[in-house]
Amino acid sequence: GPGPGLRAFALRELRWRLSDLPGYVKAVLLFGSVARGEAGERSDVDLLILHSGAPVSDPVERRRHLYKLVAERLEGVFESVTVIDTELEQFLKPGTVTPLLLNIYADAVVVVDRVGGIEEFLQRVRGRIRELGLLRVRDGRAYYWVLPKPLEKVELL
After folding, report:
1. How many Å from the N-terminal Cα to the C-terminal Cα in the chain?
2. Rounded to two decimals, what is the model's pTM?
3. Closest CA to 105 of 153, 143, 63
4. Distance CA 100, CA 144 (A)
5. Which of 29, 93, 121, 155 is an S-S bond match for 48, by CB 3.0 to 4.6 Å?
6. Does residue 123 lie within any of the structural domains?
7. Domain residues for 80?
8. Is residue 129 assigned to a domain?
9. Residue 147 domain-assigned?
10. Total structural domains in the chain?
11. How far, CA to CA in Å, does 25 sit from each of 4, 47, 69, 122, 146?
């Protein structure tokens, strides 16, 4: 299948096209099926933008603003681009670890890192995920996480 080839292509394109994003964009991570190398023929790219000091404070406006910055640089390259965003600090020290965040920690490939150490951070978190015995189960196209002991508070970070 085209999975791994598409992943290499996506990373190459993303790295050079997104290298000139504004300074408040601290990192860009690729997650989802393309990052996992299991994408089908469709190149649907999921990106997480980590920012600090972004000029737009309203979250909805900010996501629209960041999406626009990314979309104009990726014009015509991928079939669809999804952009989500969070403060860099929130990513490194989240109050709550959601299943989506767990997926991102497990799968994400670093596209842009202007902070240094994002890759190392992800490796550390993946080690913790393994130590804690968190398991991701695939159900059709969806994934869900199974905790080792039900309802136990998991200290991930």
Report:
1. 35
2. 0.89
3. 143
4. 9
5. 29
6. no
7. 3-115
8. no
9. no
10. 1
11. 27, 12, 10, 18, 33
